[in-house]
Amino acid sequence: MPSPSPWTAPQVLTALAGGAAIIAAFPPWVEARVDVLVFDATISRDGIDTHGRLTLFLGFCVLAAVLAGVYGAMSARLAGLAAAVFGAAILIVGLLAVLDLENLVDADGTELDNLPFVDASAQIGLWLTIAAGAVAALGGLTGAARRAPAP
Hints:
Structural class: alpha+beta
Helix content: 55-70%
Number of helices: 5
Distance between the termini: 34 Å
């Protein structure tokens, strides 16, 4: 008979969300279309070129917290709370980036964000970052509540 897994469903979900946040740092976060008379260009910024470095680090922090809870380096409740905090930080970074897409386009100082004919839109990496942050935060809270000691 196989031994039971030390992993709970919230821990698996939270770890997957941390991994998704790591992966989401690399695809495009924002794409800007510059359209001036006959000049038409598209500029794309990957997450790693902008705030993706921070969410990459936070994604690793989510994974570290979950692994510490699973393998006993810290209590499962504390690990769940830590993962939830890191997940919430990923979510906040992603939401703030959506609110300021033009600034993400200007990551290299070209001042394209000041042009009136630049249309910026969020891309898959940014949406995946937001989703991963939300799932990590909720998964961490669920894991912390599930493993909370009885009063």
